[in-house]
Amino acid sequence: MTQFYGRTKICYGENALETLEELTVKQAFIVTDPFMVKVGFIDHIKSHLNRGHIPYRLFDGVEPDPSLESVTKATRLFIESGADCVVALGGGSALDMAKAVVFFAYKARGGQKPLMVAIPTTSGTGSEVTAISVVTDKVNEVKIPLNDDLLIPDVAILDARFTRSLPPSVTGVTGMDVLTHAIEAYTSRRANSFTDIYAEQSVRYVFR
């Protein structure tokens, strides 16, 4: 049997960040890295949450290839905060950590799944719409893959302002990442008429 479905609500284009103001949540838990704070990107998120009168708590300890220790710390802080929404801002590592927090918080809370909003600042991984996260056990030097529908973000907000500030080299590398994913999807044994539409269009976008 083959399945195809799109679970994530994708908001893009001008004023896409205003989606944050419309969230029906009690409190948000922002997951990001120190660089997003340093360059001021996080201020955009805070501003829109404030406009929506949504209180928030910030966790800016995301590291490259999130460690099990960091995920455990972030999950504990999330549970203690009482938040019912996770907002991830950053590259693949930030999104991976946020997904892991949602997953483990769901298990710890006995089935209460927080809303997840993914705001990527790079292109390429597609993590904002996938059910996959990778956590690194640095003590045992093992990568732990998580693959569960719980990890699929509920909302993805795509704001081009976050990607325009990337160095040309990073833009090039992430563009190749997009191309690689598109080719893999197109040549996959599980490809179908629906996935081919996305794969072919992705290739066109990359070269354009």
What does it look like?
The structure is a single chain. This protein is 41% helix and 19% strand. The strands form two sheets. It has a six-stranded parallel β-sheet with strand order 1-8-5-4-2-3, sandwiched between helices. The chain is built from seven helices and eight strands. It has helices spanning 34-38, 41-51, 68-81, 92-108, 161-164, 168-187, 193-207; strands at residues 9-12, 28-31, 56-59, 85-90, 115-120, 132-137, 142-147, 155-158. Helix 3 (68-81) packs across helix 4 and helix 6 packs antiparallel against helix 7 (193-207). With 208 residues, the chain is an alpha/beta fold. It is globular.
- Tell me the radius of gyration: 17 Å
- Major beta sheet, strand line-up: 1-8-5-4-2-3
How many angstroms does the end-to-end distance come to? 35 Å
Shape category: globular
Helix content percent band? 40-55%
Note the run of SSEs as H and E.
EEHHEHEHEEEEHHH
Residue stretches low in confidence (pLDDT < 50, at least 5 long) are: none
Class based on secondary structure composition and strand pairing: alpha/beta
Mean pLDDT: 93
Put simply, the count of helices is 7
| Largest sheet: number of strands, sense, barrel closure | 6 strands, parallel
Count of beta strands: 8
Question: Beta-strand level of the residues, as a percent range?
Answer: 15-25%
Describe the structure in brief.
The chain is an alpha/beta fold and 208 residues long. It has seven helices and eight strands; from the N terminus they run E-E-H-H-E-H-E-H-E-E-E-E-H-H-H.
Key features of this structure:
208 residues, alpha/beta, 6-stranded parallel sheet, two-stranded antiparallel ribbon, 8 strands, 41% helix, globular
